[in-house]
């Protein structure tokens, strides 16, 4: 990510609504052509950040640069951005064509140029047959495409998406997700995409920024976020079912907890093993081996099954090991019943350790 | 399972509802009585306006006319005198039209733009102005008569049609602005944002995005204003001159200047004639009115 | 290249320009007019406003005047009746309308149409209907009930209630429509929940729905209250303040003394008192409604 | 030029009288009368007129009552100075009583053209009603009161009175001037002497008013002409009303002395108040119109116009030198009294509108509420007169 | 499922809104203590059915029995049901306690009995500390619990849930799901639960009724629905990502399609292999083996990777085999790139075959 190539740069951004500090000292650098996903729970400030980038909210402090220009005070339409909203925000009284060309007409683009761009966008999004219809006569997925098309025709460098798929049903969401991914590969624009759907985030993003309370908790590639969450919040936020957590104390490579003494030899400490500190151990349900496979694992525990959730493709089981509850992901064919004994085990290489006080990864 | 469905015992299908259940009798009974209370005055006005004077003196006001005569209507419309002018309400009618149309248009135009600016372009101090405006809704008109005379005089608009239009716009502004502001606030904010990203400015968004979506609230505003302005007496008479006096002034003159015996039938006919325009509007667009109210007034 | 921070005055410039009529109205007309009125209430202006300062003389006289006291009392009675009755009737009617009745449109139109008529017309018609020699009273007597007497407008004790009857006739329709809109805005699931709980409809209205309709009630309150304070035409058309001074209202007092009595100072003092009363009601409301919460 | 004239004369007789003025203007000059009638009492019309004048869009001429109503407009220089017209037409000499012109004069300049004299202290009696009750038509207020029980017995309302404040006010006014010694009247209203206001003579008036209150208790009408109509149709015995009531009798085709009787000064005293209407002429920029205003002013006092107008209006002309053969019984009676000089100035000339409004409120309340005693009412009367200017 | 023990029985139910037939000749029998989930896409009539059971809608034809009694015409409150709504429908101006006790007070239940029941419900749902608060001061999950509590205190036999979790975020949804499951185990009531979330349906249900257009498409246990969908609709509806489908023709145990000739020997036909018919072959992404494992499978295909979606815990890949696209679920650690060649394979025992015309399972 070359500094010269940065597409969007946010410096020390603050945004307050009255006394409420929604964004605080936020820094973010997004490279040219990158697909950045902003992920976070509801109310963490994702939309607010997007609106700041788009120029729809006046920032309280800080700067926003897009394409190397300081656009902190520029009008939304002058920033070279296009935006797609959760509720589509199509102009209900205009046809699809009118929706697509409205921005261009405002920008006094010549007629034939408008026609050309609309035609191209319609082709890319496969909405040519719909051009004469009004939004009310479109299905959810079609509306979403038109909304994307509206950004597309503006030939902008940066696309902003605010939860563009969350009003759609699961199947359509999956389809459109793929389409957006392909669109990104085709166009090569920078895209900033807000969601609180993990799957979307994991599959679409080059990098994910996980936000909480107006701050970025971690900004990394999806696999890095999944495999090396920087802190407890990110660790718990990512992954479904949630990571299992066990409170204990860490001394060198010994983790003592209700589970007993566990050697975490093989764990890749961030800095180096600390001397002695209260710590939290985390392990994802899908990284726990059970039954026969458990025997192969460096760490082994005995447990009893408490609850079984067959999902068809997988089975989730909540087991109890020395009083600590663990969720374990098993094969969809697994036939367990509450009360069964189940040996479980895991590899220290797959665990996560966090400082209890700072909640940072160790 | 199909075996079960072969025959069904006991209650099945929709629950039988008595047409004349106690509830229905109460509901329709009350509504009927209420309707009577609301219709009675109208009925009396219509009936009386169709009677001749002797019949009025004799019979009671609720009796239907024995002999229907349209003379009172004719008289009220074209013959009744005020002072020296004996052309009834007809002259005032056209004046009222002439006053109402520009006043309604201007006041709604101003208030809708205000409401839009307040809802979508909140600038510093907007709330203060709005609060003052709402406060203005409570000011008795009489209090403002004098200052307004002075202001219009200074503007050189006193006594002109446009002076009156301004006065109507000012006094319609508080409630209308409130309505429009609430309505525009209830529209999805994202539409507004999308339009801004699309480079549309204040007026473009107003005309091309907001306006086409605001039919219900415009209907409400129109109805309120037509009614209010058409029925206005005080401003019409104070801020204009006789050749512009609205219909209500003529009505007042006819009703209040009696010659010996009050001609109730003519008075009623005149009253009905004056109320006709707003009444027709209500009867025609009542449904839209309710929809618009639901959209604009209820969300706070 | 780096755009500098624009002057705050020029941000949203168009919006500000568009709001100029509103700003002028708010500042010059409403605020200016009010201040002017308040200022001249301390003078001895007669027919024309004159800057002859007399302190609180006009106010002393005002509060010594029986008619003013009666007006205030009447405003209070009328206001209370109108508020309570239009709320109650408007709500009951709206609730009835909400029962999926047939002919809803017809009933609604019937109840709403008087709102299209001016107070002048309303006053005239009801003056007539309530006239003991012509109206309802006469008809009932003609039917053989000789001792029947219903002549509120001719009885100083109850004349004000005669005015209320007419006021309700004119205004309840709008209130009903507002309430109806409010009722239709209530989540249908609430109704379902209360039916599953076995709560009778009237209790659901009373304990659940009504408390949920706060925003509608507030809009309604503003409309009714602003109408009450300004009531003038109705009185003039219906009773002229009589019999005696039994239906006088503050707005009429203002008008009569400004123009009839040619004592502007007195009229201004009376209107200042009215404004003060309004302020006491409106300011807390405005702070509640617009002060705290922002759009979101 | 077109001359817009505003006034509040809209009832039958009044409108006919205005018609005479218009006719005269239209026929005798090249100007045109544009009528600006506003129905209702002066209270409705006056604010409109004042607003028009102060608003900078004045009419060419406007009706006001004699007296202090237009005082401030004159002081503010908004009214045209008519001294030239008055001098040319010798108003000083012809106008009778001279008090009328005095009322138009401010600092030696004339600002209005008096049009007519109204006297309000008349008791109008229905012959039909008295015939029905079987008692003779009374000739004084005292007799009227005495005959009231007989009327009541016959199911006739003794005294017709509209429920509007100004009518009750007028009745009271009539009692004041007819039953109160002139010196007391003058010291109360002209000198604003509080002691006089508190005197027994004044109390007597309130007591009489209380009697009138009882006698009119059954009259359920609003407008004055409705009350007059009760007298015309014999449903009421009498009505206290100004001389304009005569117009209504005339419109109904009744003849004075035959179908109805009139008692000026309530039959008690040969005194009438000289008040009336006058026209004021706001200052206009247009020189043509200004000249036309002068012509109209001169026309209003013209003998022929005076006769024509006052016959229709039922009021008295403002000049003593006109031929009133056409006048009926009642009008002649009035003229006679005026000719003897038995006139005192109307209190509208003596007190401000403000005081008048306060007094009206008092009388209205007094008439509507029989629980207010004469003594209590007098106490408040004194209070108002103490503040009067 | 003994007929005497049936808790809710719906017979020949029709419901029309004017001309719109929302439910058509619907029959459903729910056993005592059973947890039935109604699953279906939006607008298929789930809520309508629930409202009919609750007595909130008048049926057009048919009968409803609850606890052996014919309640077709009974009032909602007399049916022995409690209902929980998607929007919670809490009474906003009453405290939690008020919300719980309002119905009881109304039924003239004695004071101390009310107190007891409220206390018990609060304990079960762990909302004791919230009793004095108003709904506005509660989080989404807490509100949902109160809504459940309101049904709980009524001591009813049948609980009806209308998408009770769909307003909540993913994490909370998962937690509450488990709680509802436990609640069911504790109380043993009959529960009818509407959702369009598959995971909820799979984990909660004893049986699932899959609805479409006012009809029940399949009523079976979750595993049966997952493993043996009765028809194409159910097959495509259940499972995420969706089942891969290949059009072809079946003749005895030979399935011919663009993939080539495939022997489906080992497939458990519903009736017996048909002679020859156009058919659709379905295979779930998670049942496709890839890479080395593919070699062990009776059916093997060569494919190239088109798209890779790493989800962290798993990786999804879209591959192309002879022009037919397949989604394949791989391990989370899999490192594939578009263009890679990937051998895939599957077992005929795991496939699904449907008649092309009737869309019924073969
Ligand atoms: N106009 C406003 N005034 C005051 N506070 C606001 C305003 N807009 C948003 N907020 C607050 O700012 C915070 C962040 O809001 P934002 O809309 O950015 O959240 P989000 O992350 O987009 O959430 P979601 O996933 O629900 O869309 C919230 O706590 C919200 O309450
Ligand atoms: N009052 C009504 N009048 C007419 N049609 C209705 C009415 N209520 C529902 N419908 C229609 O009935 C069908 C079923 O609606 P229902 O609410 O039962 O769907 P649902 O399965 O609950 O959907 P969702 O998952 O969106 O809640 C829909 O097509 C809907 O449009
Ligand atoms: Mg958001
Ligand atoms: Mg539903």
From TrEMBL, chains A, E:
GO terms for cellular component: ATP-binding cassette (ABC) transporter complex, substrate-binding subunit-containing. One of its GO terms (molecular function) is ABC-type transporter activity. Residues 8-238 form the ABC transporter domain. It comes from the Bacteria. It is an enzyme of class 3 (hydrolase). Its EC number is 3.6.3.20. Keywords: ATP-binding, Hydrolase, Nucleotide-binding, Transport. This is sn-glycerol-3-phosphate import ATP-binding protein UgpC. It comes from Tropicibacter naphthalenivorans. Belongs to the ABC transporter superfamily.
TrEMBL record, chain B:
Its main location: membrane. It is a multi-pass membrane protein. Belongs to the binding-protein-dependent transport system permease family. Pfam families: BPD_transp_1. Residues 93-285 form the ABC transmembrane type-1 domain. The lineage of its organism: Bacteria, Pseudomonadati, Pseudomonadota, Alphaproteobacteria, Rhodobacterales. The chain crosses the membrane at residues 25-46, 99-119, 128-149, 161-184, 205-230, 266-284. Keywords: Membrane, Transmembrane, Transmembrane helix, Transport. It comes from the Bacteria. GO terms for biological process: transmembrane transport. GO terms for cellular component: plasma membrane. It is found in: Cell membrane. The gene is araQ_2. InterPro entries: MetI-like, MetI-like_sf. This is L-arabinose transport system permease protein AraQ.
From TrEMBL, chain C:
It is found in: Cell membrane. SUPFAM superfamilies: MetI-like (SSF161098). Keywords: Cell membrane, Membrane, Transmembrane, Transmembrane helix, Transport. Residues 72-285 form the ABC transmembrane type-1 domain. GO terms for cellular component: plasma membrane. Its main location: membrane. It is a multi-pass membrane protein. Belongs to the binding-protein-dependent transport system permease family. This is Lactose transport system permease protein LacF.
